[in-house]
Write a structure and sequence with these properties.
Layout (H helix, E strand, L loop, with lengths): L1 H17 L7 E15 L1 E2 L8 E2 L3 E17 L2 E11 L5 E2 L6 E6 L1 E11 L8 E12 L3 E6 L2 E8 L6 E10 L1 E2 L4 E12 L12 E2 L2 E11 L16 E11 L5 E3 L2 E13 L4 E3 L23 H4 L4 H6 L1 H11 L5 E5 L10 H17 L7 E5 L12 H6 L2 E6 L8 E12 L2 E10 L3 E10 L2 E9 L5 E4 L12 E9 L4 E13 L1 H6 L5 E6 L13 H11 L8 E6 L7 H22 L4 E6 L12 H7 L2 E8 L2
Parallel strand pairs: 19-30, 19-31, 21-22, 32-33
Antiparallel strand pairs: 1-4, 1-15, 1-16, 2-3, 4-5, 5-8, 6-7, 7-10, 8-9, 9-12, 10-11, 12-14, 13-14, 14-16, 17-18, 17-25, 19-24, 20-23, 21-23, 25-28, 26-27, 26-29, 29-30, 31-34, 32-34
Length: 628
């Protein structure tokens, strides 16, 4: 009892601290219907014929009591239950051929401290809870008969034990008003102790299933922001968490990141498509046009640091490479989306001819370029999804010389790499009227790194940190989050992430071993596929296998676009990573390999764009090789 008193005292302190906070402390009543599963296996000394009670029995009883619910965070709460429950209301029968019955009356006072967690399975109303239940016996008795003769009537059960059981359950909040909440629940109890320690009643345990309902009264209503009268429009927004995703698929909070100078090479895939707006023969405006006197010089592309920007220059890249390989021929295949453009091969042909005109204008002989018109592409994206429909409005390139469409090597040199290199900003927002727009601005030492904007309801934002994007100064990254409603209400908040910069000088001072890092995101999978095509095998053989040395650490991370269900995409990304790892292992078995899939949880490229979704169907291969 001293333990219970201490527990009540501690919980009283928590109540005093939490009573004015949101979510509120709740007190209520509990009622339940119990299914008791009696598992006896004991002799009885009161009968000379010694019946042996070994037949299981089930009884239905009730319980009633008080319950307290004390939140210690929005997703975690302590609880305490004091409940009267009965577990008798049945007759145990003998199993050794003797007609005997034993009818128990087993009332208990249950004291159950619990801990509960919610915000699971996308629902803040669902609670999962558990605790150790202490059941104090309240004068338990039993009656016994044999062949219709009563031998014992309401005798005290000897050596009745305090019942210790593991209690676990699930409950769901159904708000009735600002103050009252109805909470149905289902719980299980697994006893660690026996009903009695007497040899005459050994052994006897009673697991239990309880269907219950709790009615709570909130000691305080939902806390209102005193700066915003409830009758006036308002908007609130902040970044609640900054996280990264581990290779095991876990989410981990990020409060700091590490920058390190390494010798670094990166390759990017060339998407062999150009995409078009609906019912248009002009490419999406993100593509950089080719000037009429374009020489094919790739120097402008050399300065770009991400795959999306490089593929916006795909026409310039094609022009240069067609000049670099003068015997190569190019087939341009125009397609349509099969929906609003259904059977419009004229539009497909116009798209192919538009791209042909661009390339001829930059100096490519027209006899080296062939055009075709199809309806849907040979390997279409999801034809019933808006994203897939947009991707099917395109032209495709097929070159007689594979080098025309080979991956692009961006740079070789010393770069600053961040770990982790992808951060996800999770917003927490509320508004009295619809959201109009939001904006996340990232800065370092007063220099703007990124400004990411969106319309409508805010969503998680992924920031993929490019090599050398961050300053070499040991200064934090600051971020400002701004939300605006359609009525013009604005909320703005800020935060920061610490940066630890490991310079080359510091690595030598700390005797840290040097290494080279090569990063490859240069093979693209077909939509909804984990098959390594012959073209991808050639790229792996030519670009990646030679870079793997004995003792290299090879990390392979799979990704997908956002089309489809998240769990399926996670599995697809893992299969892509595993397929590439198996292939590389067959070529270079003396390296160390690790494969993982992130699905669509990390948006490596902007999935609002068709090119970004194509680039997301990839694996990223990172090869770390210690210097000998």
């Amino acid at each position: 009892m001293r333990f219970i008193g201490v527990l009540l005292g501690l919980m009283s302190c928590v109540v005093m601290l939490r009573a004015q906070e949101n979510p509120p402390v709740r007190l209520g009543i509990h009622g339940g219907l119990n299914a008791n599963f009696h598992n006896p296996a004991f002799p009885t000394q009161q009968l000379s014929t010694a019946p042996y009670f070994n037949n299981s029995a089930t009884s239905l009883t009730g319980s009633i009591g008080l319950i307290g619910h004390i939140p210690i965070s929005p997703a975690l709460a302590l609880g305490l239950r004091a409940t009267y429950t009965a577990m008798g209301n049945t007759t145990l029968t003998a199993s050794n051929g003797i007609a005997a019955g034993l009818s128990p009356s087993l009332p208990y006072l249950e004291l159950t401290p619990t801990i509960g967690i919610n915000d699971l399975l996308l629902s803040k109303s669902l609670w999962l809870w558990g605790g150790l239940e202490v059941g104090i016996p309240l004068s338990p008795t039993y009656s016994q008969d044999s062949s219709g003769t009563t031998l014992v009537t309401n005798a005290t059960l000897p050596d009745a034990q305090t019942r210790i059981a593991l209690a676990i359950g699930a409950a769901y909040d159904l708000p009735l008003s600002d103050r009252w909440t109805l909470q149905p629940e289902l719980s299980l109890r697994f006893p660690f102790s026996k009903v009695s320690s007497s040899v005459a009643f050994d052994s006897w345990t009673i697991p239990q299933v309880r269907l219950g309902v709790n009615i709570f009264y909130n000691l305080s209503s939902a806390k209102q922001d005193s700066t915003v009268p409830p009758t006036e429009p308002y908007v609130r927004g902040r970044i609640a968490r900054v996280v990264s995703i581990t290779p095991d698929g876990d989410t981990t909070d990020v409060r700091s990141l590490t920058l390190e100078d390494v010798r670094y090479t990166e390759y990017f895939p060339v998407v062999p498509y150009v995409f078009f707006p609906a019912n248009s023969s002009n490419p999406e405006p993100t593509y950089a046009p080719i000037e009429a006197r374009e020489t094919g010089d790739e120097s402008a592309v050399d300065t770009l640091k991400d795959a999306l920007s490089i593929n916006d220059q795909v026409l310039t890249l094609l022009c240069r490479r067609m000049k670099q390989y003068p015997t190569a021929t190019l087939t341009i295949i125009g397609t349509n989306d099969g929906r609003s453009e259904l059977r419009n091969r004229t539009l497909s042909l116009q798209r192919a001819q538009t791209i042909r005109s661009f390339l001829v204008g930059c100096g490519i002989d027209s006899t080296r370029i062939k055009v075709e018109a199809h309806d849907l592409p040979e390997k279409p994206s999801a034809p019933n999804d808006p994203d897939g429909i947009a991707e099917n409005r395109r032209v495709e390139f097929r070159a007689s010389t594979p080098e025309v469409l080979e991956p692009f090597q961006s740079r070789v040199g010393i770069e600053r790499l961040a770990n982790p290199d992808a951060l996800i900003f999770l917003p927490e927002v509320s508004t009295s009227d619809p959201f109009k727009e939001w904006e996340l601005t990232l800065t370092q030492a007063g220099r703007t790194l990124r400004t990411i904007r969106g319309e409508g309801s805010p969503r998680p934002v992924t920031w993929t940190i490019q090599p050398s994007e961050l300053s070499s100064q040991q200064v934090p990254i600051d971020y400002t989050y701004r939300v605006e409603s359609v009525l013009g209400k604005v909320s703005e908040s800020s935060g920061s992430i610490a940066v630890d910069y490991i310079s080359s000088t510091r690595k030598l001072r700390e005797q840290s071993g040097n290494k080279t890092i090569e990063k490859f995101s240069l093979i693209l999978f077909d939509f909804d596929s984990d098959v390594i095509t012959p073209d991808n095998q050639r790229i792996l053989d030519q670009k990646i296998v030679p870079a793997i040395k004995p003792g290299s650490n090879v990390k392979i991370f799979g990704y997908t676009d956002r089309i489809g269900e998240a769990r399926y995409n996670l599995d697809l990304s893992r299969r892509r990573a595993q397929a590439v790892m198996n292939y590389l292992k067959s070529k270079r078995p003396d390296a160390n390999y690790q494969a993982a899939g992130f699905g669509e949880s990390i948006e490596r490229y902007d999935n609002n764009r068709p090119t970004g979704r194509q680039l997301s169907r990839t694996v990223q291969i990172i090869i770390e090789t210690p210097k000998q």
